[in-house]
Design goal:
- This protein has one domain (4-153): NAD(P)-binding Rossmann-like Domain (Rossmann fold), CATH 3.40.50.720.
- It contains five helices and five strands; from the N terminus they run βαβαβαβαβα.
- It has helices spanning 13-22, 36-48, 63-77, 102-129, 149-153; strands spanning 4-8, 28-33, 52-57, 82-85, 132-135.
- The radius of gyration is 16 Å and the shape is globular.
- The N and C termini lie far apart (32 Å).
């Protein structure tokens, strides 16, 4: 494959499994998540499979973290061929039961703005490599589900 792949939300779930599935000799991975310890464990698993893997702490709800993640990954890997916007959070509550909409704002910062910011900062690198942009979303992002209104809006 010989690609440099960035994955947000790489410390668990889909992101971690995707990293493990892609890990092979010639593959370079930059994994981002808030929990550095779990992220380093996934990176170590990928390295055992022959991949180059970087664990970079990043809270995608903060644009500066997104910018720094992309910049460090590009610098250390030398290029960006694929960006997988996978980081996301979910919530469960009926809309009429939500009292504090700060919860929705935080979810939008992660699920929407995190992808927007990472994409914005990776775009010049992706264009130069004629690379790929991958977006991961939940079923709630496609079909509204009662009790998942915040996820459907993200």
């Amino acid at each position: 494959m010989n690609k440099a792949v960035l994955i947000t939300g790489g410390s668990e779930g889909i992101g971690a499994e995707l990293a493990r599935q892609l890990a092979a000799p010639g593959v370079s991975l930059a994994l981002a998540a808030r929990n550095l310890e779990r992220l380093q464990a996934v990176a170590a698993q990928c390295q055992q499979k022959g991949a180059r893997a970087l664990a970079i702490r990043c809270d995608v709800s903060r644009e500066a973290d997104c910018r720094d993640f992309v910049a460090r990954a590009a610098s250390e890997l030398g290029r960006i061929d694929v960006l997988v916007n996978n980081a996301g959070v979910s919530g469960h509550a009926l809309f009429e039961e939500v009292k504090d909409f700060a919860w929705y704002e935080q979810m939008m910062r992660v699920n929407f703005f995190g992808s927007l910011w990472c994409t914005r900062h990776a775009l010049p690198h992706l264009k130069a490599a004629r690379g790929l942009l991958v977006a991961v979303c939940s079923l709630a992002g496609k079909h509204g589900i009662p009790g998942r209104t915040a996820s459907a809006s993200g």
